[in-house]
Specification:
By secondary structure, the chain is an alpha/beta fold. The protein is built from ten helices and 13 strands. The strands form four sheets. It has a six-stranded parallel sheet, sandwiched between helices. It has a three-stranded mixed sheet with strand order 11-8-13. A two-stranded parallel ribbon has the order 6-9. The model has no long low-confidence stretch (mean pLDDT 93). Keywords: Isomerase, Multifunctional enzyme, NADP, Oxidoreductase.
């Protein structure tokens, strides 16, 4: 990408998109296109094509998606499937129709089989059933990456797919009904500290392990990959992670320490655990020359401090 290349970031207000936007600005890119949901409805095929025909971006980061935690995924399977399919289909097809040079599609590590061997290598995709609690989202993402592959094969496009592990960072979703585990715990502990609570309820057994990647690191990886001459349509899927995981209970204890919470952590084993482990094999991206820089301790401190600063005078976390 040249500094003057026209670059479209879909979903620029989301966790991934906002950090991509900041990364590109920090690196001096001058011609970045963004549209809010009000300005451009990505669910509307005609509207998306009209936008692409007018703007004719050279490069596209497909970061827009309907996302949420385990509760949202379990109760809105249809919405997660439909909306993500629509967004992907419209952006990918319009990119093809208007001659986009290179597109980066953001998948997710949750698309790997529920009982996938660990760590999860790219070739393990579709070797088993996905996790039932988020099949709507997972199937949509699998369809998106397969669409990129099919367009590369049939039309000669240059679309690449990355599969990031669990993400977190400033600007995350902290709503208790829709957030992922790490921001949900940050909110819980911040609320407990503010209210002087004596205990925190943690869903499940606390034994499942998860890998967490700071959104700043993901943005850095995505820009690196789209710029790399060694990464193209023939590279195949690319995992993005840190190569290490932590149990949910260990994560809770780490946030407890950072927050200064003095109470107890109580496990509600009547609630589901989800997949027991989700650790990515990151050897492919490591061999390409990229590695995550932000440790889990440093990252959680960053997000916790951002959350307190952002919501300290707000009833959001009371």
């Amino acid at each position: 990408m040249q500094k003057t290349s026209k670059i479209y970031i879909s979903g620029h207000r989301g966790l991934v998109g906002s950090h991509l936007l900041q990364k590109l600005k920090d690196q001096g890119y001058e011609n970045i296109i963004t549209k809010t949901r009000v300005e451009l409805d990505l669910l509307n095929q005609a509207e998306v094509l009209k936008f692409f025909e007018k703007e004719k971006p050279d490069y596209v980061f497909l970061a827009a998606a309907k996302v949420g935690g385990i509760m949202a995924n379990m109760t809105q399977q249809g919405a997660f499937l439909y909306e993500n399919l629509q967004i992907q289909n419209n952006v990918i097809h319009s990119s093809y129709q208007t001659g986009v040079k290179k597109l980066l599609f953001l998948g997710s590590s949750c698309i790997y089989p529920r009982n996938c061997p660990q760590p999860m290598r790219e070739e393990y995709l579709m070797t088993g059933d996905v996790e039932p609690t988020n099949y709507g989202y997972a199937i949509a993402k699998i369809a998106g990456l397969k669409m990129c592959q099919a367009y590369n094969e049939q039309y000669g496009t240059n679309y690449i797919t990355v599969m990031p592990t669990n993400l977190y960072g400033p600007g995350d979703n902290f709503d208790p009904q829709g957030s992922h585990v790490l921001p949900a715990l940050i909110r819980k502990f911040a609320t407990a500290v503010k209210n002087g609570d004596k205990e925190i309820i943690l869903w499940g057994t606390g034994t499942p392990k998860r890998e967490f990647l700071h959104a700043k690191d993901l943005a850095d990886a995505c820009v690196f990959l789209l710029n790399s001459e060694n990464v193209n349509k023939d590279t195949g899927l690319i995992n993005i992670g840190v190569g290490a995981d932590i149990s949910i209970l260990e994560l809770a204890n780490l946030i407890k320490e950072i927050s200064g919470f003095q109470g107890n952590i109580v496990l509600d084993t009547s609630k589901p655990d989800g997949m027991m482990r989700k650790l990515l094999d990151v050897s492919k991206i490591s061999n390409l020359g990229w590695k995550a820089k932000i440790s889990i301790e440093e990252g959680i401190k960053d997000v916790y401090n951002w959350f307190i600063k952002t919501y300290k005078s707000n009833l959001f976390y009371l």
